């Protein structure tokens, strides 16, 4: 299987300027998202308990914040663009309850 390019999990920008392994302090230069996060890990799997396919890893509550997981292995291709339906639903909710920003 071909390795997927390393891109930011949040905005999809290529992370070619970073050296591996990622440090806990690494951030995306485009959107400033933290990168040593569950969403960038090869073990991240929303179909598994705790969204992690590594059975002995401690649970991390916020999958988008930097953490100290010893099983972290960076994986490429983790950017998932928002779908139109999700954006429409989010807009509808924000019109009812207001934005959290």
SSE order and pairing:
Elements: H1 84-97
Question: What can you see in these coordinates?
Answer:
The chain is largely without helices or strands and 101 residues long. It has one domain (1-101). 14% of the residues lie in helices and 0% in strands. It is built from 1 helix and no strands. The protein has one helix at residues 84-97. The chain starts with 83 loop residues before the first helix and ends with a helix. The relative contact order is 0.21. The model has no long low-confidence stretch (mean pLDDT 87).
Query: Which ranges are low-confidence, i.e. pLDDT below 50, for 5 or more consecutive residues?
Result: none
- Oligomeric assembly: single chain
Number of helices: 1
Rg, Å, rounded: 15 Å
The run of helices and strands is: H
What's the end-to-end separation, in Å? 40 Å
Q: How many domains in all?
A: 1
Work out the strand percent. Answer: under 5%
Helix content: 10-25%
- DSSP E strands, number: 0
Q: Biggest sheet, open or closed, and with what strands and sense?
A: none
Helix/strand/pairing class, anyone?
little secondary structure
Characteristic terms for this protein:
little secondary structure; 101 residues
Provide a compact summary of the structure.
With 101 residues, the protein is mostly loops.
């Amino acid at each position: 299987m071909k390795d997927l390019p390393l891109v930011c999990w949040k905005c999809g920008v290529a992370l070619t300027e970073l050296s591996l392994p990622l440090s806990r302090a690494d951030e995306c230069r485009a959107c400033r998202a933290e990168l040593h996060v569950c969403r960038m890990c090869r073990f991240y799997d929303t179909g598994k308990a705790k969204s992690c396919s590594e059975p002995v890893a401690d649970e991390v509550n916020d999958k988008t914040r930097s953490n100290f997981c010893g099983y972290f292995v960076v994986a490429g291709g983790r950017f998932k663009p928002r779908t139109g339906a999700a954006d429409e639903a989010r807009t509808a909710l924000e019109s009812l309850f207001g934005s959290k920003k």
